[in-house]
């Protein structure tokens, strides 16, 4: 292993911002291109890469002397892209589930060939669902999103957030009740 790589890791572990800027400037553009191959949208790719660099800074003290920063970054970006895609898939599935649930339980028909397209209603409903989720209190929303969008079990959420399973159950129940109330206009 070269002395410069080892020295670079030591500098990074000491919190040397110049070392961090150097790795950022060296790899940022190519990592964005790499991430874009997975997530297509450049803004999402950039966000994933930025999050990866934040994580690198956070875990810098746990880096081994022989860590290949380039390999670490590419692997982390790939994993973060896959997590993002999984999140999008779960989120879309949940929104479709809510839409089906609303439709099955008597969605008020405001659609007619004369005044609306189904696509507009679907977008309006999606916006309402997103707004309703965003309106949840921070803790409640985080727990709900971990459950519904990341697919975590109550036990996993409790462990990740260092709270009791009962707290998770209560918060999920409150979230569902709030969403039901906020989306009540879509039920007969």
Number of helices: 8
- Residue stretches low in confidence (pLDDT < 50, at least 5 long) are 107-116
Biggest sheet overview: none
By CATH reckoning, the class of the largest domain would read Mainly Alpha
Shape: elongated
Please name the CATH architecture of the largest domain: Orthogonal Bundle
Q: Determine the mean pLDDT.
A: 82
Total number of domains = 2
Query: Considering DSSP H and I runs of 4 or more, what fraction of the residues is helical?
Result: over 70%
Enter the CATH topology name of the largest domain: Rna Polymerase Sigma Factor, Chain: A
- Listing every helix as H and every strand as E from the N terminus to the C terminus, the arrangement reads HHHHHHHH
- CATH superfamily of the largest domain, by name, is RNA polymerase sigma factor, region 2, helix turn helix motif
Supply Rg.
22 Å
Topology, number of strands: 0
* Beta-strand percent range: under 5%
Summing up helix and strand content along with how strands pair, one would put the structural category as: mainly alpha
Characterise this structure.
This protein is mainly alpha-helical and 188 residues long. The chain has helices at residues 3-13, 17-39, 42-59, 69-104, 118-134, 138-148, 154-161, 165-182. The protein folds into two domains: 3-84, RNA polymerase sigma factor, region 2, helix turn helix motif (Rna Polymerase Sigma Factor, Chain: A), CATH 1.10.1740.10; 105-186, Orthogonal Bundle (Arc Repressor Mutant, subunit A), CATH 1.10.10.10. The protein contains eight helices and no strands. The model is unreliable at 107-116 (pLDDT under 50).
């Amino acid at each position: 292993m070269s002395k410069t790589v080892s020295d670079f890791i030591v500098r990074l572990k000491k919190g040397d911002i110049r070392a961090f800027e150097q790795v950022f400037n060296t790899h940022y553009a190519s990592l964005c291109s790499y991430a874009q191959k997975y997530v297509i949208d450049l803004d999402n790719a950039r966000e994933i890469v930025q999050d990866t660099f934040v994580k690198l800074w956070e875990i810098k003290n746990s880096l081994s002397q022989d860590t290949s920063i380039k390999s670490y970054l590419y692997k982390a970006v790939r994993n973060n892209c896959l997590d993002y895609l999984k999140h999008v898939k779960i989120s879309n599935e949940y929104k479709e589930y809510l839409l089906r649930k609303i439709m099955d339980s008597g969605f008020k028909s405001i659609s007619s060939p004369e005044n609306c397209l189904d696509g507009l209603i679907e977008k309006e409903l999606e916006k309402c669902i997103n707004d309703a989720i965003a309106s949840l209190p921070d803790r409640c929303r985080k727990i709900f999103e971990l459950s519904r969008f990341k697919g975590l079990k109550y036990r996993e959420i409790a462990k990740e957030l260092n709270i009791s399973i009962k707290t998770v159950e209560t918060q999920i129940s409150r979230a569902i009740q709030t969403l039901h109330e906020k989306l009540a206009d879509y039920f007969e």
